[in-house]
């Protein structure tokens, strides 16, 4: 079984089917319904159902192509024996248990639909031109958590079974399991949807400042459109980590400046600040995971406070992070 935990963000052609066609709706037209592609997968695997397979291929052809070629990476969707290969892949006893548990845990997705609708209504008011993707649930066999296309977004219910789900202990560290709770589905969807529309590709010359402020502005927007009470809550920090951030904010900033990290282009330095591993010592002690992104949110928040006329749309388009930092004159 592949154990990759990275979230796949792809620019794909629109998913064309009788269910998913047309353009994204206007703010007043937001009415998100999550397609239960996962149930077709479950029916096909557990019952060898030709009817379910046919619906996967005819009703959701791009989701099936994405699953086979990119998520599972087991071949091309038009390979002569690809259906048998997919059936064999999911026939692993651990995966069968995972599928059954996921279907039981996510019988009802209405609470996710409610949060997605509320968030996209707020987002569309700020950025009316952003299309609303078609959402679907899938079972990725513990591969990608979220996949994003030009007009589709799929999330993997098997990657959100809860921190204490027993099967996770066999494949993930505890700190990784913390991000696999059901309440992370909606913020993950919004985060990687926005990153797909406002990407900052890695290239020579990109600094840590570029990376943390870009991610910071995305998380800042997600915090606001989803109505989180704090940036720490949006980041998934617990009370102890939130307290650490409050107590060490000034010292962390001084450390970044003193060591010249802010304008560092070394990928190792950048990854130290943005990686999910919470056990990386930066100030001689262990910091919360992705502490650089948290600091990026603070920079963006200070910038927005000093520029009250700045809209979310303009913020998402802004990329001159060095100038933004200068304009902010950040002093924690």
Molecular structure report:
- The protein is mostly helical.
- It has two domains: 8-197, no CATH class; 208-328, no CATH class.
- Helices cover 51% and strands 5% of the residues.
- It has 15 helices and four strands.
- It has helices spanning 37-47, 50-58, 61-71, 82-90, 93-105, 110-126, 174-177, 185-197, 208-225, 231-235, 239-258, 267-274, 291-306, 312-317, 321-328; strands spanning 8-9, 134-138, 146-148, 152-156.
- The protein has a four-stranded mixed sheet with strand order 1-3-4-2, sandwiched between helices.
- A hairpin with a 3-residue loop joins strand 3 (146-148) and strand 4 (152-156).
- Helix 1 (37-47) runs antiparallel to helix 2 (50-58) and helix 8 crosses helix 9.
- The radius of gyration is 21 Å and the shape is globular.
- 36% of the residues are buried.
Describe the protein's topology.
Elements: E1 8-9, H1 37-47, H2 50-58, H3 61-71, H4 82-90, H5 93-105, H6 110-126, E2 134-138, E3 146-148, E4 152-156, H7 174-177, H8 185-197, H9 208-225, H10 231-235, H11 239-258, H12 267-274, H13 291-306, H14 312-317, H15 321-328
Parallel strand pairs: 1-3, 2-4
Antiparallel strand pairs: 3-4
Helix pairs in contact: 1-2, 1-5, 8-9, 9-13, 13-15
Radius of gyration over all CA atoms, rounded = 21 Å
Strand order of the largest sheet: 1-3-4-2
Structural class: mainly alpha
Number of helices: 15
* Portion in beta strands: under 5%
Helix content: 40-55%
User: Which consecutive residue ranges, at least 5 long each, have pLDDT under 50?
Assistant: 1-27
Shape: globular
Specify the biggest β-sheet: 4 strands, mixed
Mean pLDDT: 89
Number of separate strands: 4
């Amino acid at each position: 079984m592949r154990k990759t935990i990275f979230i796949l963000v792809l620019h794909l052609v629109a998913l064309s089917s009788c269910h998913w066609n047309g353009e994204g709706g206007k703010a007043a037209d937001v009415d998100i319904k999550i397609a239960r592609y996962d149930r077709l997968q479950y029916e096909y695997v557990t019952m060898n159902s030709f009817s379910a397979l046919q619906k996967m291929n005819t009703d959701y052809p791009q989701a099936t192509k994405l699953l086979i070629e990119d998520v599972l990476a087991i071949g091309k969707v038009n390979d002569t024996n690809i259906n048998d290969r997919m059936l064999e892949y999911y026939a692993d006893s651990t995966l069968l248990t995972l599928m059954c548990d996921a279907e039981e845990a996510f019988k009802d997705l209405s609470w996710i639909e409610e949060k997605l609708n509320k968030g996209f209504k707020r987002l569309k008011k700020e950025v009316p031109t952003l299309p609303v993707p078609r959402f679907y649930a899938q079972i990725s066999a513990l591969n990608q958590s979220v996949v994003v296309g030009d007009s589709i977004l799929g999330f993997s219910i098997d990657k959100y079974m809860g921190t204490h789900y027993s099967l996770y202990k066999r494949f993930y560290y505890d700190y990784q399991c913390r991000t696999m709770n059901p309440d992370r589905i909606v913020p993950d969807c919004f985060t990687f949807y926005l990153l797909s529309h406002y990407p900052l590709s890695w290239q020579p010359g990109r600094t840590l400042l570029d990376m943390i402020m870009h991610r910071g502005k995305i998380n800042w927007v997600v915090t606001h459109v989803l109505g989180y009470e704090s940036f720490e809550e949006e980041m998934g920090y617990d009370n102890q980590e939130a307290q650490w951030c409050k107590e060490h904010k000034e010292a962390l900033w001084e450390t970044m400046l003193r060591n010249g990290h802010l304008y560092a282009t070394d990928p190792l330095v950048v990854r130290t600040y943005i990686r999910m591993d919470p056990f990386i010592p930066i100030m001689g002690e262990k910091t919360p995971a992705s502490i650089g992104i948290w600091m990026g949110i603070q920079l963006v928040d200070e910038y927005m406070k000093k520029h009250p006329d700045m809209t979310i749309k303009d913020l998402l388009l802004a990329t001159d992070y060095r100038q933004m930092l200068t304009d902010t004159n950040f002093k924690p």
